[in-house]
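[recover] target loaded
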């Protein structure tokens, strides 16, 4: 087993600017603790790439179809994330935003990799009850069943997840 100081982490979000604007301090604190952090998001712009290079943050780009529910695109995302996890061999995955939490959580569950998820918001899918809402609930339930911890940025979202048994209390 690797020493905790050498622990490899994947930090997965969709938007590169979100990693820069909202996760920079988290990345710094992990690196300061000796962790090896790799960030994952949509491809970087030239300016974003300069930022990551300047900060010496390792980054891997992956394609996320941000809006919509395409079974083919989502299946591709699942397999892309599976390849990524196999290549990176992380000991811990931190995921935030809907698709990284769901598909990253599913891959982590299959591969037995500990995951910490952050639910940043529910988006429009929970506004009214449709087949998509039921599908997304099922995907959250499956993907978060083995999550080590799930953080919520909104107490109402947490209550909805608990009421619908999408997460378990730890």
């Amino acid at each position: 087993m690797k020493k905790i100081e050498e622990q490899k982490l994947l930090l997965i979000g969709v938007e590169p600017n979100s990693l820069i604007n909202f996760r920079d301090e988290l990345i710094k604190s992990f690196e300061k603790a000796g962790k090896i952090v790799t960030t994952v998001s949509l491809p970087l712009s030239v300016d974003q790439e300069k930022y990551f290079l300047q900060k010496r943050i390792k980054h891997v780009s992956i394609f996320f179809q941000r809006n919509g529910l395409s079974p083919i695109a989502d299946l591709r995302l699942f397999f892309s994330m599976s390849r990524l996890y196999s290549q990176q061999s992380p000991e811990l995955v931190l995921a935030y935003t809907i698709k990284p939490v769901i598909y990253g959580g599913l891959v982590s569950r299959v591969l037995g990799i500990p995951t910490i998820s952050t639910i940043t918001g529910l988006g429009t899918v929970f506004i009214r009850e449709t087949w998509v809402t039921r599908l997304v609930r099922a995907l959250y339930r499956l993907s978060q069943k083995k999550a080590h911890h799930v953080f919520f940025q909104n107490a109402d979202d947490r209550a909805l997840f608990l009421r619908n048994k999408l997460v378990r209390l730890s």
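[recover] notes: The longest strand covers residues 36-41.
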